[in-house]
Amino acid sequence: MEHGGFTPDDKTAGGPGNSSKSKKANKGENMPTLDMLCYNLEAANSHPNQALKFLQALYMDAETISGAHESSISGLEDAFRKGKDTNQIQEMIETFMQNAQLLVDNHFEFRSIILSILSKLTIINCHNFGVRCFNTLKDLMIAGKELEK
Less Cβ around it within 10 Å: N or C end of the chain? Predict the structure, then answer.
C-alpha cells in the first residue's frame, strides 16, 4: 500500500525524512507523521529479514511522541494529520493496526517490541489513534494468552 508518495519497498528505515534519529520534539517540530509510522510498520512486514531495523525506527518515533512535552501535542496532531483528510487518516490507522497484528501473527519474536510501540502511541488523541492502539494491545495480549494454553 502506498502512502504519501513512498512505499515500504524503499530500503531505508524511517521512511520520508528518516525520523528514526533520536530528536527532541520542540513545539511539534520533528514529530513523526502518520506516514512515517505506517511506513516503518509496513516495511517490517514487507522485509522480514530487515524487520528489526524498521521496528527500531518505529520504536524511536514512538519514543519521540511519548516523550513530547505537553506544548508539543498540538504540533503532534498537525504532524500526524499532515494534509490528509479524515477518510485517508482512518484508512491509514486501520492499516497500521492490521499490520501490527499481522507482524505479531507471522513473527511472534517481535511481539514485545510491537507491544512497547503500541503502548507508547496510546497518548495520541488525534482520530482516536491512541484508543485504537490500546484496543490492539488488548487483542494482542488476549491472543498471546490463548497461544500459551
Answer: C
Are the beta carbons of 50 and 105 closer than 8 angstroms? no
**What span, in angstroms and rounded, lies between the C-alpha atoms of 41 and 103?**
8
pLDDT in tens, 18-64: 444 434 444 455 788 899 999 999 999 999 999 999 999 999 999 99
Q: Which residue has the cell 502511541?
A: 121
Average model confidence (pLDDT) across the chain = 79
Distance from C-alpha of 84 to C-alpha of 92, rounded to nearest angstrom: 10
Whole-angstrom Cα distance, residue 122 to residue 107?
A: 22
Place of cell 506544548: 71
Q: Which amino acid is at 149?
A: K
CB neighbour class for 85 (10 Å; exposed up to 12, middle 13-18, buried from 19)? exposed
CA distances, 69 to each of 24, 44, 76, 85 (Å): 9, 29, 10, 26
C-alpha cell of residue 26: 520542540
Compute the distance between CA of residue 140 and CA of residue 106 in angstroms, rounded to an integer: 13
The pair phi, psi for residue 6, each rounded to 5°, is: -135, 160
